[in-house]
Amino acid sequence: MKAAALQMVSTPRVGDNLAAAASLIAQAAAQGCELVVLPEFFCLMGRQDSDKLAAREEPGRGPIQSFLAAAAREHRIWLVGGTLPLRASDDVRVRNTSFAFSPQGECVARYDKIHLFWFDDGGERRDEPRSIEPGSEPVAFTLRARDGRDWRIGMSVCYDLRFPELYRRLQADVLLVPSAFTHVTGQAHWEALLRARAIENLAYVLAPAQGGTHENGRRTWGHTLAVDPWGQVIACRQEDGEGLVVADLDAERLTGWRRQLPALEHRVL
């Protein structure tokens, strides 16, 4: 199965971001990709955290969700919409939500980001709990590829990457990590963490990312990449700016690695 992880430099304007995403999705579909994954907050990187409130949607309706459903249906692909702001239980926060859509445009999974990022190095400060309400449940879904093979797809978002117990719970063949890593933490830890999650779980990892300097002044790390279950980076975008990374996910090789090293069957704790 061919899959694509998309890299963006999203703006404070939802319409512009959806147009950019549509172009990248079309490019991935034209290359024969069956699974396409957008980065975290692909639809909006606001000038301030509270900008998410104006763009928040209700579950099952709203222009961003409609866009994702239509794009999946138009291109006959499985499309995972990075994340978008969804209404929370109060009026000052949102859920940071990832939706997966089938080639028929049906929503097949919803994951609300569980682990919320807090960081302060004296120069840059991020405090997601102020504006985001956390989710609580791991989510995976079954993707039936065009060849009839079923893949278990595990969903996660950005900061979740630092919590390996989540990925153990997912028991997935492919782990998705749509992200907007800061430049500082990305430079230090991005690739190492992604490779570790692939190795630990003998799973493919697809990590679409925000990558560049945004209009709000924030700089994201980018380096959208794909890792195989042996921990090897099979594709990576080195440059800032929008683009896509395409990778072939080989089910027979996945089965072979898990047979050669059945570490998942050797767990004790």
Tell me what you see in this structure.
The protein is of the alpha/beta class and 269 residues long. The chain has one domain (2-265): Nitrilase/N-carbamoyl-D-aminoacid amidohydrolase, CATH 3.60.110. 26% of the residues lie in helices and 28% in strands. The chain has six helices and 18 strands. The strands form four sheets. Strands 1, 2, 3, 4, 5, 6, 9 and 18 form an eight-stranded mixed beta sheet that branches. Strands 10-11-12-13-16-17 form a six-stranded mixed beta sheet, with helices on one face. α1 packs parallel to α3 (63-75). The longest helix is centred in the last third of the chain and has 19 residues, at 183-201. It starts with a strand and ends in a 9-residue tail after the last helix. The model has no long low-confidence stretch (mean pLDDT 97).
Could you give a quick summary of the protein structure above?
This protein has one domain: Nitrilase/N-carbamoyl-D-aminoacid amidohydrolase. Helix content is 26%, strand content 28%.
Task: From the structure above, extract its key features.
269 residues; alpha/beta; Nitrilase/N-carbamoyl-D-aminoacid amidohydrolase; 6-stranded mixed beta sheet; 6 helices; 26% helix; 28% strand; C-N_Hydrolase; hydrolase; hydrolase activity, acting on carbon-nitrogen (but not peptide) bonds, in linear amides; C-N_Hydrolase_sf; Carbon-nitrogen hydrolase family protein
Topology, pairings included?
Blueprint: E1 2-7, H1 14-30, E2 35-37, H2 51-55, H3 63-75, E3 78-80, E4 84-87, E5 94-101, E6 107-112, E7 118-120, E8 125-127, E9 132-133, E10 139-144, E11 150-155, H4 164-170, E12 174-176, H5 183-201, E13 204-207, E14 211-213, E15 219-221, E16 225-227, E17 233-236, E18 243-248, H6 251-260
Parallel strand pairs: 1-2, 2-3, 5-9, 11-12, 12-13
Antiparallel strand pairs: 1-18, 3-5, 4-5, 5-6, 7-8, 10-11, 13-16, 14-15, 16-17
Helix pairs in contact: 1-3
Protein name: Carbon-nitrogen hydrolase family protein
Domain CN hydrolase: 1-251
Pfam families: CN_hydrolase
